[in-house]
Amino acid sequence: MFVADGWKDFEVLYAGEQEKYERWGDVFLRRPDPQAVWPVYDNGKEVTWEDLPAPNAVYNRSNTGGGAWQKIKPMPSDWTVGYRSLGKDLKFIIEPTSFKHTGLFPEQASNWDFAGKLISDAKKAGRDDIRVLNLFAYTGAATCAAACHGASEVVHVDSSKGMIQRAKENIQKSGLQDSYVRFINEDCRKFVEREIRRGRKYDGIIMDPPKYGRGPTGELWEIEKSLYEFVSRTALLLSDKPLFVIISSYATELGANAFGNVLDLTCSTKFGGKTVSDELGLPVTHMDLNLPCGQVSRWTPRA
Questions:
Q1: I want to staple 119 with a disulfide (CB 3.0 to 4.6 A). Which of 149, 159, 203, 272 is the partner?
Q2: H helices of the chain, where?
Q3: Which residues are paired to 184 by β-bridges?
Q4: Cβ atoms within 10 Å of 216's Cβ, excluding its own
């Protein structure tokens, strides 16, 4: 498991009964998590949620789908948390949404550090032109990481205008406004096909595809049916000396090795190298365990 254990402004305090209790800066939230299929413990003693300090808000699921936040204590509508990635300070806006999310997946920090080290090492080795493509890029945390570690260009692609706007705000918060970042509001498949026709190349590719979705003009995405073809087309955008490809995903029945097999068949067959696949995770402070948070496969060209 790749555990994101370098956070100071965030932590999972407790997890159990398919929920988790988190600290985001000075704000405490409790929300659903289907991976937490065990009782709640506090330093070795089984407890109930009522035994623990009340959070600022709890997300309650609705019987008809979706849900809503129930505010228990005063809290801001949005606020900022920081993460120090290999000596570089990043800032992200947190805003609880009606879909239980907060605008950031903190377990992805291990991917930010992984990509950041490869980018910074390549720069130290004399590579000045490092281009990174971030697909299904959400609020831009990986975009910020690639930019802060020295990518000469980062292309950020997402089909949601709202997520594009938040990503721009996170770039500003992180002090990266002078970095060359292109924000593209488009279906990722359409963008990739256009880049292939243009002959564009990238040294690093990051993607976090959803299980199911539709693009701005109704393009259907189903990960089990769409992933292999999409990755095989995206791999055509890799430069002659690529650094990495990272695929992570949530809410899917596909295991990490399934993503790894896709990368082996599309990247390793052309460039060699290796793929490492595992779960992403977060430490649970008061329970001495790691909470699974999705799957990731990372391809690099050297064994």
A1: 149
A2: 109-124, 141-148, 161-173, 188-198, 223-234, 256-263, 269-271
A3: 157
A4: 13
pLDDT tens per residue, range 40-53? 999 999 999 999 99
Q: Residue 22: pLDDT band by 50, 70, 90 thresholds? A: very high
Q: Give the angle 223-212-133 at the CA atoms, nearest 5°.
A: 65
The DSSP bridge pattern shows strands 57-61 and 27-32 to be: parallel
pLDDT, position 72: 97
At residue 303, does pLDDT exceed 70?
A: no
The CA distance from 89 to 190, in Å, is 33
**Is residue 66 a part of any domain in this protein?**
no
Among left, alpha and beta (phi > 0; psi -120 to 50; other), residue 21 is beta
Distance CA 116, CA 135 (A): 17
Tell how strand 79-85 and strand 88-94 pair up: antiparallel
Residue 216: predicted pLDDT: 66
Establish if 22 belongs to a structural domain.
Answer: no
Please state the pTM of the whole predicted model. Answer: 0.94
Q: Is residue 42 part of a domain?
A: no
* pLDDT score of 251: 65
Q: For residue 43, give the 3-state DSSP assignment.
A: coil
Closest to 210 in 3D by CA, of 155, 236, 248, 172: 248
Other residues' Cβ atoms within 10 Å of the Cβ of residue 281: 21
Domain region containing 139: 105-300
Residue 238's alpha-carbon distances to 80, 91, 138, in angstroms, are 34, 29, 22
CB of 133 closer than 8 Å to CB of 208: no
Q: Indicate the length of the chain as a whole number.
A: 303
Give residue-wise pLDDT tens across range 202-258. Answer: 999 999 998 887 766 777 878 888 899 999 999 999 999 999 999 999 866 888 999
